[in-house]
Amino acid sequence: MTATDEQALAERVVAAMLVHDELSRWLGLEVTRIAPRHATCRMAVRADMVNGFGVSHGGIVFSLADSAFAFACNTHGRVTVSVENSITYPAAVHPGDVLTAVADEEAASNKLGYYKVDVRNQHGVLVALFRGTAYKTSRPHFPDA
Amino acid sequence: MTATDEQALAERVVAAMLVHDELSRWLGLEVTRIAPRHATCRMAVRADMVNGFGVSHGGIVFSLADSAFAFACNTHGRVTVSVENSITYPAAVHPGDVLTAVADEEAASNKLGYYKVDVRNQHGVLVALFRGTAYKTSRPHFPDA
Amino acid sequence: MTATDEQALAERVVAAMLVHDELSRWLGLEVTRIAPRHATCRMAVRADMVNGFGVSHGGIVFSLADSAFAFACNTHGRVTVSVENSITYPAAVHPGDVLTAVADEEAASNKLGYYKVDVRNQHGVLVALFRGTAYKTSRPHFPDA
Amino acid sequence: MTATDEQALAERVVAAMLVHDELSRWLGLEVTRIAPRHATCRMAVRADMVNGFGVSHGGIVFSLADSAFAFACNTHGRVTVSVENSITYPAAVHPGDVLTAVADEEAASNKLGYYKVDVRNQHGVLVALFRGTAYKTSRPHFPDA
Q1: C-beta contacts of D116-119 below 8 A and 24+ residues apart
Q2: Within-domain flag for B82
Q3: B43, B64 in Cβ contact below 8 A?
Q4: CATH code where residue A108 lies
Q5: What is the DSSP string of C101-128?
């Protein structure tokens, strides 16, 4: 595939995934950049997304990062699923914060892909470090691609 | 503290956390058992909780497990925050599934607590293995407790 | 396979692995129990295993746990490799301590196995919580088995 | 502290740690660069470092990465200990390979530091992705510093 074909496939995959992704819709997640093995996503944290301490629930930041990871690791066109994720929280997130998640592949073998997702707030402060290991099935997203 | 006092404190802490926990409310999360260093929570997966493949978004199972972890690790009465979490997904989760998350402390030092959360579906199948490391601040939930 | 056959295969696999496992030999690791999807291993921490603080190097406890994990996850007879590991350290380990690592499968799919390894010292204190995700190749350890 | 003072403190801390670090000595680990919140370390994998499959034991790569992490996260001069580590293995390591581990801080709060360690072989291939969370005690390495 040419770079142009790779980019077109990446965009086609993510567009198809977004049709079904109800949770990302509820989050208000916006995909701002797609490239092969990359995704950037953005969302605003709302008052209905807090935990028992009144700050953003860990599950919100995780969901944003996990969506970015899922988009990035499927861009090559094979159906790819998450094996394992980890997350740390260097800084707290509050309602009103606007978060940007940047997902990139760090390494890959034939079957596995290793991704990192950095999540920053509107001030550029790193609020979460997310890692994801993905298993690439042999099934294509589009039989014709 | 007596065992009775510890149980009363655990319940008081979780009741206070639930007042503010808007995300757990949206999830439909129900706390079915609280004990010192333990929480069991249950929720039903809805059609608006799916990802781009039409199965439960990883963020949903994570959020359920993370809530159970947060309740369990705060039961001793000091404000306790998450340091790191990891999750794996041994089986897929579908809309309509009813999930039960069981959170227990595995080990603890003065400052840190190590928790595991097992999440099973209505058939008893393990669908997620979640781990959490928690940092215990010196701040009490209730100055009088 | 009968339970007897499964046990015999498990022991045969681990015996074959031990022939080549030079690091476990240097550690002084002893395999004290093997069963399908299980391994128990023991070792004594020596003065030449410390880190810059004079306590056991994290790599020593990790290596013990990783060996126990590798033995346990190969017992079913297919060549199985590690995908990801995590470890926490609830208590310090000192030269002279005798450590026992108990590895068990928590869940499995066709391709992946999820293991936990608890490491305790001679007083029964939990000194490490190790998790491992393993990928089962289709290659048998013994073509005749 | 000036940048010069920070660099001098970093070097002094690591020099003091290396005096006691018997495992790093056995590994043949060489510290090739120290800077505030950074360490680069190198070692050659020997035939006595293999696992049951004849490739480098996971504990060897982990130990190298863990040493680099420990040096990097102690450079600020407060005694700092590991809370949690995770590692993945994008490519196999063989005896004879020369590994370089590069440890850098990704984020930090007052009490915690978040580090990544990339390990590459002599061909520049990424063979391990290691993450470490560190807890900074209030105890200085040198009361006069």
Answers
A1: D117/D65, D117/D68, D117/D69, D117/D72, D119/D61, D119/D64, D119/D65
A2: yes
A3: yes
A4: 3.10.129.10
A5: EEEEEEEE-SSEEEEEEEEE-TT--EEE
Average pLDDT of D21-44? 98
Query: For the segment B48-86, what is each residue's pLDDT rounded down to a tens digit?
Result: 999 999 999 999 999 999 999 999 999 999 999 999 999
Contact A88 D129 (CB under 8 A): no
C87-141 residue pLDDT tens: 999 999 999 999 999 999 999 998 999 999 999 999 999 999 999 999 999 999 9
Q: Point out the residues of chain A with pLDDT beneath 70.
A: 145
Task: List, for residues C20-71, the tens digit of each pLDDT value.
Answer: 999 999 999 999 999 999 999 999 999 999 999 999 999 999 999 999 999 9
Q: What is the mean pLDDT of residues D35-43?
A: 98
Q: What pLDDT was estimated at residue C110?
A: 87
Our CA-based measurement puts residue D66 at a distance from the nearest CA of chain A, in whole angstroms, of 18
Q: Does C144 touch chain A (CB under 8 A)?
A: no
C126 class by beta-carbon count within 10 Å (0-12 exposed, 13-18 middle, 19+ buried) = middle
In D, minimum Cα distance to A83 occurs at D88
Q: State how many domains chain A has.
A: 1
Is residue A131, in this structure, part of any structural domain at all? yes
* C3-20 helix and C58-74 helix, angle to the nearest 10 degrees: 140
Whether C106 and B129 lie within 8 Å, measured CB to CB: yes
- The interface pTM score, or ipTM, of the predicted complex is 0.97
Euclidean distance between CA atoms A88 and B86, whole angstroms: 9
State the residue for tokens 């060996």: C67
* pLDDT attached to residue D8: 97
What average pLDDT does chain A have? 97
Is the Cβ–Cβ distance between C69 and C132 less than 8 Å? yes
Q: Report yes or no on B56 lying in a domain.
A: yes
* Separation of alpha carbons D49 and C24, rounded Å: 9
Beta D30-35 vs C126-140: how paired, if at all?
Answer: unpaired
| Crossing angle between the packed helical segments D58-74 and D3-20, to the nearest 10 degrees | 140
Q: Which of A68, A65, A6, A60 has its CA nearest to residue A31?
A: A68
Residue D145 lies in a domain: no
The beta-strand segments (E) located in B2-97 are 30-35, 38-44, 78-88
Which candidate, C77, C88, C71, C91, places its Cα nearest to that of C129? Answer: C88
- Whether the model clears a pTM of 0.90, i.e. scores above it, the answer is yes
Q: Which residues of chain A have a CB within 8 Å of the CB of D131?
A: 86, 88, 129, 131
Residues from chain D that touch B83, judged by Cβ atoms under 8 A, are 83-84, 112, 133
Q: For position B127, what pLDDT does the model report?
A: 98
**CB-based contact (8 Å) between A111 and chain D?**
no
Q: Which residue of B has its CA nearest to A51?
A: B21
Q: Which chains does chain C touch, 3 or more C-beta pairs < 8 A?
A: A, B, D
Q: What is the average pLDDT score of chain D?
A: 97
pLDDT tens for A101-116 read 999 999 999 899 999 9
**Does C145 have pLDDT greater than 80?**
no
Which structural domain range is residue A82 located in? 3-139
Question: Which of A131, A135, A139 should one mutate to test binding to chain C, selecting the residue with the greatest count of C CBs within 10 A?
Answer: A135
Look at D82 and C89 and tell me if their CB atoms are within 8 Å.
yes
Give the C-alpha distances (Å, rounded to integers) separating D5 from B119, D12, D36, D105: 50, 10, 10, 19
